Amino acid sequence: MSTGVAEKTQKTIGGIRRKFSPWTDPTAVPLIRYENVTKRFGEFTAVDSLSLDIYEREFFALLGPSGCGKTTLMRMLAGFEEPTEGRITLAGEDLVGTPPYRRPVNMMFQSYALFPHMSVWDNIAFGLRQDRVEKGAVAARVEEMLKLVKLESFAKRKPHQLSGGQRQRVALARSLAKRPKVLLLDEPLGALDKKLREETQFELMDIQMELGMTFLIVTHDQEEAMTVADRIAVMNHGKLVQVAPPAEIYEQPNCRYVADFVGDVNILDARVESVDAGGLTLRAEAAPDMPMRISQGGEAKPGDSVSLAVRPEKLRVDLEPPADASLNCLSGTIWDIGYLGDLSIYHVELPNGVRVKAAKPNLTRMVERPITWDDKVYVSFTPDAGVVLTR
Amino acid sequence: MAAKAKGRWLVVAVPYLWLLALFLVPFLIVFKISLSQDAIAQPPYFPTFALSEGWAAIKESLGELSFENYGYVLSWDNEFIEAYGSSLVIAGISTVLLLLVGYPIAYAMARSSKALRPTLLMLVILPFWTSFLIRVYAWIGILSPEGLLNQFLFFLGVIDHPLEILATDTAVYIGIVYSYLPFMILPLYSALEKMDDTLLEAAADLGCTPFAAFWKITWPLSLPGVFAGCLLCFIPAVGEFVIPDLLGGSDTLMIGKVLWTEFSVNRSWTVSSAVAVLLLLVLVVPIVLYQNVQQREVEGR
After folding, report:
1. Where is the ABC transmembrane type-1 domain (chain B) (predicted)?
2. What CATH code is carried by the domain that includes residue A382?
3. Smallest Cα distance from A109 to chain B, Å
4. What is the mean pLDDT of chain B?
5. A257-261, A364-368, B234-238 — which is least confidently predicted?
6. Residue contact A130–B208, C-beta within 8 A
7. What total number of domains does chain A contain?
8. Is the minimum CB–CB distance between B221 and chain A shorter than 8 Å?
């Protein structure tokens, strides 16, 4: 499957990706600005006074459950919806009131929306012909697009003669053909099976890198957002909850909602006992006799009720108590085991009935696991493994 | 297994038997009459086959059949060829008018809110609740020199002497367009209604104004409906005789009317049968076309 595009970008991709963070640069000018944008449908507020900056060449993901307003936010950029209040600018130009056919953005639709009466070639050429691009240039661009999505031999087919994956590629090629300033992707991989989806995610990143374009993707699949995006905006009820690069979203969620929505997490209710230079001491309701040290506490003050979030892969499960006294340790019994092949998920019941999940990679081909149902185990984690959430 | 195969065969056989008994056999009878000669008798033609007279008699009668009537109908001296031509022209023009009137209506119906659509559909079918004949008679009342239309135009002061509409080709066009409109609207509506709106969004996204999107997306995708609607109107309109008879003038020449005159006034069963068989031949082309369109529709799904 690997062609020129993939190989060429392989050499540069790391270099570019590692340095790319215009959102940390106060002098950088955003390409897309949502300014206090509100969208109401009758009584329902889909997007609620939201402001967001997206930078050039960024691969930006809008992540959230269905009905959170992410699709509406994207459709307002495409021009299919007009904001009730607020401004949307693209490269400094106010877009509000501009009809979709005059906006320099293109969209790849969730249903692909390929024109069923046109061949693959004509579908890809559609936008260029609409702009009255000269014939030779249209042909050259369509050939280039077909090559980019590896569909050279399918140019004459009609959409109904293609597989789901091929249709997805045609839709992508069609939306890229006009070289829009921004490409909008509405759940682009939702209809593909898991394997194909993962492959395509990487291809999308390569294509974005190769063309140097700004991509805005809407998805409810957090893995997809984590894989492809430079930054993720987690949305809920029409508001942005957190906007950050994937690792920050995962490792430093700013509230329970984000921690819970992105990835698997154990959330323990706790009370802050003391705060000092090295971190803070918590007492969890699940283990009142065991004070816990957490190295990062945000703005938590002594006496605050907080949530302690720890990812399952950061919990260790042992039959013996850990020797290292600096580790936080909880004791419990194995309630259930989920065997996933690469990982085993141990559900550990703490004395007060709260259950935590711990993921352990299956490093050896052991059919009989040493830890089994009803074993008394010790769950431990380092002070920097947990995140204290005040919201 | 055998019982199951037999059951399946029965299910298939029922519609074929129906067509055989109610379409093919009557057609063969008409065809046979068209090969016979006029006679002052009951029935008014000969030869007649009587199974009781035995095989030899039937064989002898067969020898008396001829294509004479077809020669009569197809000769330039008589008005038949002209009537066929004029019927095709009137049906063709009517079909174009029907499309021009029906498409906007079907389009508006398909774009209206989902809640409203059943009501609109009901309104399109509503005229069928009254007899076709009565509705055509009603048009006489509207179009006649002292009819509703002229009275209304007088009232408005638009005209000072009555418009001559009744007993002209215009009245025939009005009658055909009015009577056949549901047959145009329904296939158009069903083609337009199942269209995916995101296709129009995609077209707009790629730079199409709403007008361009209509011609590049909506129109080509509605073509099966356009073909179906046009053929569904054109085929029966060619043979139409009630509308030209009631609304048309003496110079309105349509083959259906000619056939009726030949049958009821001239009492020539044989010539009118020949006219009917030839009319069927003329319509075979559009009927086959229609079947093709239907077939493609089914396969397209």
Report:
1. 84-290
2. 2.40.50.140
3. 8
4. 89
5. A364-368
6. yes
7. 2
8. yes
Closest chain B residue to A102 measured between Cα atoms? B207
Residue A273 sits in the same domain as residue A362: yes
Lowest-confidence segment of A58-72, A156-170, A190-204, A216-230 by average pLDDT: A190-204
- A200 and A334 part of one domain: no
DSSP code per residue over B149-194: HHHHHHHHTS-SS----TTSHHHHHHHHHHHHHHHHHHHHHHHHHT
Domains by residue range for chain B, with CATH: 79-300 (1.10.3720.10)
> Which range marks the domain in which residue A99 is found?
4-104+180-256
Q: Are A35 and A207 in contact (CB under 8 A)?
A: no
CA A35 to chain centre: 23
Under a CB-based contact definition with an 8 Å cutoff, are residues A217 and A229 in contact? yes
Higher pLDDT, A363 or A63: A63
- Checking if the pLDDT of B91 tops 90, the result is yes
Same domain for A191 and A271? no
pLDDT for B237 equals 94
Residue A344's identity, in one-letter code, is S
Q: Which of A82, A101, A132, A184 to mutate to test the interface with B (most CBs of B within 10 A)?
A: A101
- Using pLDDT thresholds of 50, 70 and 90, give the confidence band for residue B293: confident
Task: Give domain status of residue A165, yes or no.
Answer: no
User: With contacts defined as CB-CB under 8 Å, which chain B residues touch A131?
Assistant: 207
Does residue A5 carry a pLDDT above 80? no
The DSSP H or E segment spanning B29 is helix B25-34
Sequence-ordered list of residues with C-beta below 8 angstroms from that of A230, at least 6 positions apart, any chain: A17, A20, A21, A58, A59, A60, A245
Does residue A364 belong to any structural domain of this protein?
yes
Is B207 part of the contact surface with chain A (CB cutoff 8 Å)? Answer: yes
* B205 near A CB under 8 A: yes
Q: How far is A17 from chain B (nearest CA, A)?
A: 30
Domain-embedded: residue A223? yes
Specify the pLDDT at position A14. 62
For A114, A153, B52, B150, B219, the CA distances from A172, given in Å and listed in that order, are 10, 16, 78, 61, 25
Domain end, chosen from A256, A285, A320, is at A256
Candidate from A80, A127, A175 with C-beta closest to B201: A80
Does residue A225 share a domain with residue A91?
yes
Determine the average pLDDT of the residues in B237-258. Answer: 89
CATH of the domain at A58: 3.40.50.300
pLDDT of residue A17: 66
The answer on pLDDT for A11 being more than 70 is no
| Mean pLDDT over the full length of chain A | 87
Determine the pLDDT at residue A287: 77
CA–CA dist A250, A264 (Å, integer): 10
Nearest-by-CA chain B residue for A126? B206
CB contact under 8 A, B198 and A111: yes
B294 to chain A, closest Cα gap in Å: 17
- On chain B, the residues whose CB falls within 8 A of the CB of A78 are 205
Q: Tell me, yes or no, whether A241 and A272 share the same domain.
A: no
Q: Do B209 and A131 touch (CB under 8 A)?
A: no
Is A130 in Cβ contact with B206 (below 8 Å)? yes
Chain A interface mutation, best of B195, B200, B205, B226, highest count of A Cβ atoms under 10 Å: B205
Residues A245 and A288 in one domain: no
**Angle subtended at Cα B105 by Cα B240 and Cα B299, rounded to the nearest 5 degrees:** 75
Which residues have a Cβ under 8 Å from the Cβ of A86 and sit 6 or more positions away? Answer: A34, A35, A36, A37, A38, A49, A50
Checking if the pLDDT of A1 tops 60, the result is no
Structure token pair of residue A356: 């935590």
Do A248 and A327 fall within a single domain? no
